[in-house]
Amino acid sequence: MTTIELVLGDITRQSVDAIVNAANSSLLGGGGVDGAIHRRGGPAILEECRKLRASRYGKGLPTGQAVATTAGDLDARWVIHTVGPVYQGSGGDPALLASCYRESLRVADTIGARTVAFPAISTGVYGWPMEDAARIAVETVRATETEVEEVRFVLFDERAYALFAAQLR
Ligand code: AR6
Q1: pLDDT surpasses 90 at 53
Q2: Ligand 1 pocket check for 164: Cβ under 6 Å
Q3: CB neighbour class for 55 (10 Å; exposed up to 12, middle 13-18, buried from 19)
Q4: Full-prediction pTM beyond 0.90?
């Protein structure tokens, strides 16, 4: 059984086995969660991302997929990088947003992570409406078979927290 927890706060402050990063295909950093993770996690994360770009992901990590690296100085063993779909302008493909959660949990299983913190993927720079993103996130985690014991959604503001809480009720 996977339990779902909600936390209002900064994902880079979580003590968990794996922290999920709302990355972009380049894997080379950005703003939002991505910027915060690289800032607090230090250069070891970027170094491993560069190696992934030089090997398995020469064209970048495709949208909806996930890959793990070290978590550097974060209080976690791994960062799982996933690329959410862009909503702004295109409307976004909900199947790809669901895939981010499913693939991140699949990667968590392959590395043996039992506690995983997720941000609200695609709801910042990528513009996905929070209420819809919360529904997709909660439904997908509930429907995914995984060895992960705790999924912790870490929400950055009270509105996001309330919308996730509404999905859990
Ligand atoms: N902890 C928890 N949540 C946060 C934090 C934090 N420290 N910082 C922001 N959020 P975003 P995306 C919330 O933009 O939409 C980057 O440049 C934020 O309020 O981080 O998937 C990447 O490199 C929002 O609700 O991710 C990509 O280019 C949610 O996290 C692009 O942004 C996600 O916002 C990805 O955009």
Answers
A1: yes
A2: no
A3: exposed
A4: yes
